[in-house]
Amino acid sequence: MIDLGTLGGDYSHARAINDFGQVVGTSNTIEANGPHAFLTGHNGVGMIDLSILEPVIAAGWTQLTPYSINNKGQVFGYGVLRGNYVAFLLTPSEISPIPEPSTYAMLLAGLGVLGFSLKRQTKSSLFNA
Prior knowledge:
four-stranded antiparallel sheet, Ice-binding_C, three-stranded antiparallel sheet
């Protein structure tokens, strides 16, 4: 058993671990403004608050809840984007402490595809009702 620590608050909750020991979950912060998504064991860095990464904030994501991490380091979960609960997939390049400019382009492209598919799914469910 390993103490993962917290993001400054008084609890953390692990959700998943991959074969390389990277763990995702949620933790509260010292401000106690709700749980924040975290990742540990990425590039030798301790606990990373995924909720405050620049690409996540720039895209407008809130209330991230990670559910799984694969052996590529990709984090899957759900969050709120423009008032809707939708799935997300963060890749290791998006999790890097200093993102490259191409990271923003890839994140925005991925979010655009997600938004398009959500919009299309919503329209098709209206016609099927």
